[in-house]
Amino acid sequence: MIAIVSSFLLVSTVIGVLLPYLLKLLIDESQSSSTSQSVSLFSFSNLYFLAFAYAMGWLISQAIDQFKNMFSALFFRNFESALVYKGLENYFNLKYEEQKKIEAGVFNADLWRGASGFSQITYTILFVIIPIVIQIIGMVWVLAHNIGVIYSLYFLIFSIITLALSLLITFKTHDIFTAMYESRNSLNQFIIEKISGAYDIKVNASLNYELKEFDNRIHTFKRKAGHNYKKAVVFMLYQLIFIGFFLLFFMLLSVYLFQQKQQITAGDFVLISTYIVSLTLPLMMMSQSIIRLRGDFIAAQKYYDYFNLQKDELSQKQLNQSTSLYEFRHSNFMLGQYLVHDFNFKIEHGKCYVAIGRTGIGKTSFIHYLIGLQQIQKGQLKYKDVDISEQFSAQIFKEIAFVSQNPIVYSGTLRQNLVHNSQYNYSDQDLYEWLDRFHLTKILHKNNIQLDDDLQDIYKSFSGGEKQRISIIRAMLKRPELLIMDEPTAALDERTSLELMPFIRKRVPTIFMISHANYALEFADEIIDFNQLIVASTEVELDHK
């Protein structure tokens, strides 16, 4: 597509240079015909031909401009979308510790602004600066052949100085955009944070306090934005003054050569005037674009900085057949604020493991080691005899499924939420049976939706229990060898949990789950008491001392 846009751009630029030259020929020819005592048919033919050529050239130029604008818009839409895609892909590949440091609102703003910044930089270079350079070169060539080499050199020198001045002002300009970006990011972060805690704000009667705080931040943002926009306008005025001087100088010089020296024809005068006037608009556009490049460079740099963060380096080691899935061998690792010493443990195929322990002891941290979000400090952790102590294997994700204690329902259709990343095909009847088994068909009737209807904002009204059951179905439809669940029944009543757990146990070969519910212990083949684990580890540490 860029080749098509470049072709249109080149043709448009060349026509823009040639049209004034055709107008010059038309004027000179008409003057020659009018002053000649004998008007020949040949002279009139030239005039008709030149008039026709000029009109057709203008028509073709305008048509090409429209096609150029259309294709350039498509190109930059695809370009910007590709950058957003790569930025999100990069985020997913970051280490868990890096992701935790990034605010969702700030990242979203940086992602789109950075993609737009890259797009604007590319646009300024390809569609503003390069066409102007080509246009100036073409004008200099025409002027050298019609007016004189000296005149064309003056024109070239002034054009180069104008371009150089625009670039110099841009790169010498103090950074006036970072403060605005940071201030806007602060506003975005504040809004997302307060929307998430809207109910808490309401019941604690802190609405006026929060709105006052937001108003203060808005005033800070407006003050910084206003100050920096004034600076940007001043820099633009510097460039516009020089462009105006460029226009004035060559217009006066042309008038002098035409009236006083009579060294140029009326057609030459029109040619020069048209060239100068036609350059002023692109030069003004260029000056404004280049001034904004500073902000675009900053936005692009912020976008690029995310690519320099530490990424997950996953191996592609093939997994072996094994009766044991995970195996800890003499492992040391952190559970919350506690250090576990010399831990040995196996998660064997076909068993159900239930982890218990007081709140905050680090049970979720243990799951993080199983799913590769964290690495142990010492010893070995294996999955099917593949060592994942330092580098997790991407192949494991194909064999396990995870249900978080904060269940997620995504935007899209209900079918997409259920099937998600499953490698298996399910008919409508299959999915309806799963929904019925988990008592979720009522959400279809209540909201008058089918499997392929877009949930839009409906999913936001789902209860915690409904979201949790959807998350469990999603995990089970993947048909994993191991299902890891963090408080899977926290949002469910005991009756529903007791009904669903045997069904889950029957459908999934191996289960590892964290639960505070006593009834979950009924389904366990093995119980891991983290309270005892921490006590034992502390005693080992004291013995070492």
UniProtKB/TrEMBL annotation:
<feature type="transmembrane region" description="Helical">
    <location>
        <begin position="264"/>
        <end position="284"/>
    </location>
</feature>
<keyword id="KW-0812">Transmembrane</keyword>
<feature type="transmembrane region" description="Helical">
    <location>
        <begin position="39"/>
        <end position="60"/>
    </location>
</feature>
<dbReference type="GO" id="GO:0005886">
    <property type="term" value="C:plasma membrane"/>
</dbReference>
<protein>
    <submittedName>
        <fullName>ABC transporter ATP-binding protein</fullName>
    </submittedName>
</protein>
<keyword id="KW-1133">Transmembrane helix</keyword>
<dbReference type="GO" id="GO:0140359">
    <property type="term" value="F:ABC-type transporter activity"/>
</dbReference>
<feature type="transmembrane region" description="Helical">
    <location>
        <begin position="7"/>
        <end position="27"/>
    </location>
</feature>
<feature type="domain" description="ABC transporter">
    <location>
        <begin position="320"/>
        <end position="542"/>
    </location>
</feature>
<feature type="transmembrane region" description="Helical">
    <location>
        <begin position="150"/>
        <end position="171"/>
    </location>
</feature>
<keyword id="KW-0067">ATP-binding</keyword>
<dbReference type="InterPro" id="IPR027417">
    <property type="entry name" value="P-loop_NTPase"/>
</dbReference>
<feature type="domain" description="ABC transmembrane type-1">
    <location>
        <begin position="3"/>
        <end position="295"/>
    </location>
</feature>
<dbReference type="Pfam" id="PF00664">
    <property type="entry name" value="ABC_membrane"/>
</dbReference>
<dbReference type="InterPro" id="IPR039421">
    <property type="entry name" value="Type_1_exporter"/>
</dbReference>
<feature type="transmembrane region" description="Helical">
    <location>
        <begin position="121"/>
        <end position="144"/>
    </location>
</feature>
<keyword id="KW-0547">Nucleotide-binding</keyword>
<dbReference type="GO" id="GO:0005524">
    <property type="term" value="F:ATP binding"/>
</dbReference>
<dbReference type="Pfam" id="PF00005">
    <property type="entry name" value="ABC_tran"/>
</dbReference>
<dbReference type="InterPro" id="IPR003439">
    <property type="entry name" value="ABC_transporter-like_ATP-bd"/>
</dbReference>
<dbReference type="GO" id="GO:0034040">
    <property type="term" value="F:ATPase-coupled lipid transmembrane transporter activity"/>
</dbReference>
<dbReference type="InterPro" id="IPR011527">
    <property type="entry name" value="ABC1_TM_dom"/>
</dbReference>
<keyword id="KW-0472">Membrane</keyword>
<dbReference type="GO" id="GO:0016887">
    <property type="term" value="F:ATP hydrolysis activity"/>
</dbReference>
<feature type="transmembrane region" description="Helical">
    <location>
        <begin position="232"/>
        <end position="258"/>
    </location>
</feature>
<dbReference type="InterPro" id="IPR017871">
    <property type="entry name" value="ABC_transporter-like_CS"/>
</dbReference>
<dbReference type="InterPro" id="IPR036640">
    <property type="entry name" value="ABC1_TM_sf"/>
</dbReference>
<dbReference type="InterPro" id="IPR003593">
    <property type="entry name" value="AAA+_ATPase"/>
</dbReference>
